[in-house]
Specification:
There is one protein chain. The protein is of the alpha+beta class. The protein contains 7 helices and 9 strands. It has helices at 14-21, 26-35, 47-53, 58-71, 121-129, 166-174, 193-199; strands spanning 37-38, 55-56, 77-83, 89-96, 99-103, 114-118, 141-145, 148-149, 177-179. The strands form 2 sheets. Strands 3, 4, 5, 6, 7, 8 and 9 form a 7-stranded antiparallel β-sheet that branches. A two-stranded parallel ribbon has the order 1-2. Helix 2 (26-35) runs antiparallel to helix 4.
C-alpha cells in the first residue's frame, strides 16, 4: 500500500483553518499567542488543542507557532533552551531573507518574539540571554539545542492530535545542547530589579518556577 501523503489541513476544522489563515506574517502568530492565557499545567497539547482551549504554556506555544509558520511556508523548527535553577524555554524559529527570527509564548514579558535580524541560531539565542533570569534575578540560560524539524513527528499527527505530546519534550531533553559559556566562567551579575519586576509583572503565578536560594 502506498504511504499516505501528509496534508497540512488534515485534522483541522474549517473554523480553525480560518484562524490560522489570518496569520499573514510571523508576528501575527505572536500577537495571537500574546492574547491567549498562559497555561500553568504540565501538559503538552497539540496546536489544534491550543486553538480549542485558547491557552498555552511555552512548549505548547512553540509547537503552535511552528505549525502556523509551516502554514506560511516556513519549516516547522523549534529550539530548546536549557536553564539552571529555572524553567527551560522553547521557541519556534523562522528564517527570512537569510536571517533568523523567533516566535514564542512565555510567562514573562521579555522572552517572546524576535525580529528576523540574526545571522545564526546562536546569535538569535544570545538575544535572550540578558533577559533570561529567574524570579531571584539570576541569569539562568546555559545551553541551547540545534533546530529540531518537527516533520519527524508527522507520523504522530503532532499538529492535531488530542494525545499529550510529552514525548517531544523527552526528545528535546535527550538531544545534544550547545553550551552558552564554559562552566568555569566567573559568576554572573544579577539582572536589574526594575527589569525583573517588569518581566514578571503580568505572569501567572502558578506557572512560575520557584528557584532555590543560594
Amino acid at each position: 500500500m502506498a504511504k499516505r501523503k501528509f496534508i497540512l489541513a488534515d485534522g483541522f476544522t474549517i473554523d480553525e483553518l480560518k484562524v490560522i489563515a489570518g496569520f499573514k506574517e510571523p508576528h501575527n502568530i505572536q500577537l495571537f499567542l500574546n492574547e491567549i492565557k498562559y497555561n500553568p499545567e504540565y501538559v503538552t497539547r497539540s496546536p489544534k488543542m491550543v486553538l480549542k482551549h485558547k491557552v498555552a504554556n511555552c512548549f505548547e506555544g512553540a509547537l503552535f507557532a511552528a505549525a502556523a509558520l509551516r502554514m506560511l511556508g516556513y519549516k516547522p523548527l523549534i529550539v530548546d533552551m536549557m536553564a539552571k535553577n529555572d524553567d527551560d524555554h522553547v521557541i519556534a524559529i523562522f528564517k527570512k531573507n537569510g536571517l533568523f527570527g523567533a516566535v514564542a509564548k512565555s510567562n514573562t514579558t521579555v522572552l517572546r518574539f524576535r525580529e528576523p535580524v540574526y545571522r545564526t541560531v546562536r546569535e538569535l539565542v544570545m538575544s535572550y540571554f540578558d533577559f533570561y533570569f529567574n524570579t531571584l534575578g539570576e541569569k539562568s540560560l546555559v545551553s541551547y539545542s540545534n533546530p529540531v524539524d518537527l516533520t519527524k513527528f508527522d507520523k504522530y499527527n503532532w499538529m492535531t492530535t488530542e494525545n499529550d505530546l510529552e514525548f517531544i519534550g523527552d526528545y528535546l531533553f535527550e538531544i545534544n545542547h550547545n553550551e552558552i559559556f564554559p562552566k568555569t566562567s566567573r559568576p554572573l551579575n544579577y539582572a536589574d530589579k526594575e527589569l525583573v519586576d517588569l518581566c514578571f509583572s503580568s505572569s501567572v503565578t502558578e506557572g512560575l518556577f520557584v528557584p532555590k536560594k543560594k
